[in-house]
Amino acid sequence: MKNMLIAEDNEQIAVVLGEYAKQEGFNVFFAADGEAASAVFAKEKLDIILLDIMMPKKDGFAVCREIRQTSNVPVIMITARGEDFERIMGLDIGADDYIVKPFSPAEVMARVRAVLRRMDTASGQKNILKYDNLQIDLDSYTVTVTGKDISLTKKEIELLWLLASNYGKVFSRDNLLDSIWGYDYFGDTRTVDSHIKRLRAKLNAGSIYGKMIKTVWGVGYKFETAENEE
């Protein structure tokens, strides 16, 4: 049985989500504020977290940052406003998806299933990619250059893996959006561009590998060594 944490200060919403989650076969833990959410995360082995942004004591952004320091457990952010900056910030700090209130509990469970399917697919690959001194390990979600860890978010690692494991193939922004964020993601292609920009910057710090992520103008992006640049 998979474990789910529902971190939500609105008791009515939490109870309804909990009932739907139990029907899906989850063992459910609850937290009514950010500090309680952190405590449950530290104590329990969780398979997915529903994390409200606006919570007492510690907001969802702070909790998500804390989680991502040690874990890649899937996190779905819940926001009451649905403003672009909240969605982008949540994804940038490592959330796997977001959902805007008011929502249907059935839709939330559909998002949960979609995120877990993507995680199962990724973990099932059991692969390590190497390009000279660059190593991408999708099993442990780590990227190293000459043995030194590069601090990347989970989405940045998945984006790098997709490009590097399809050497020379051009992906449109829509392709990348669907592959990494899922077909039901309601954001736009600016999300892809911002992630590519940060990924290049992090890889370029002390290495040339950021330059391997090439822009194909009017189309999208590909991964290719400098020698093959047209």
From TrEMBL:
<keyword id="KW-0804">Transcription</keyword>
<feature type="DNA-binding region" description="OmpR/PhoB-type">
    <location>
        <begin position="126"/>
        <end position="225"/>
    </location>
</feature>
<dbReference type="InterPro" id="IPR001789">
    <property type="entry name" value="Sig_transdc_resp-reg_receiver"/>
</dbReference>
<feature type="domain" description="OmpR/PhoB-type">
    <location>
        <begin position="126"/>
        <end position="225"/>
    </location>
</feature>
<protein>
    <submittedName>
        <fullName>DNA-binding response OmpR family regulator</fullName>
    </submittedName>
</protein>
<dbReference type="InterPro" id="IPR011006">
    <property type="entry name" value="CheY-like_superfamily"/>
</dbReference>
<keyword id="KW-0597">Phosphoprotein</keyword>
<dbReference type="InterPro" id="IPR036388">
    <property type="entry name" value="WH-like_DNA-bd_sf"/>
</dbReference>
<dbReference type="InterPro" id="IPR016032">
    <property type="entry name" value="Sig_transdc_resp-reg_C-effctor"/>
</dbReference>
<feature type="domain" description="Response regulatory">
    <location>
        <begin position="3"/>
        <end position="116"/>
    </location>
</feature>
<dbReference type="InterPro" id="IPR001867">
    <property type="entry name" value="OmpR/PhoB-type_DNA-bd"/>
</dbReference>
<keyword id="KW-0805">Transcription regulation</keyword>
<keyword id="KW-0238">DNA-binding</keyword>
<feature type="modified residue" description="4-aspartylphosphate">
    <location>
        <position position="52"/>
    </location>
</feature>
<dbReference type="Pfam" id="PF00486">
    <property type="entry name" value="Trans_reg_C"/>
</dbReference>
<dbReference type="GO" id="GO:0003677">
    <property type="term" value="F:DNA binding"/>
</dbReference>
<keyword id="KW-0902">Two-component regulatory system</keyword>
<dbReference type="Pfam" id="PF00072">
    <property type="entry name" value="Response_reg"/>
</dbReference>
<dbReference type="InterPro" id="IPR039420">
    <property type="entry name" value="WalR-like"/>
</dbReference>
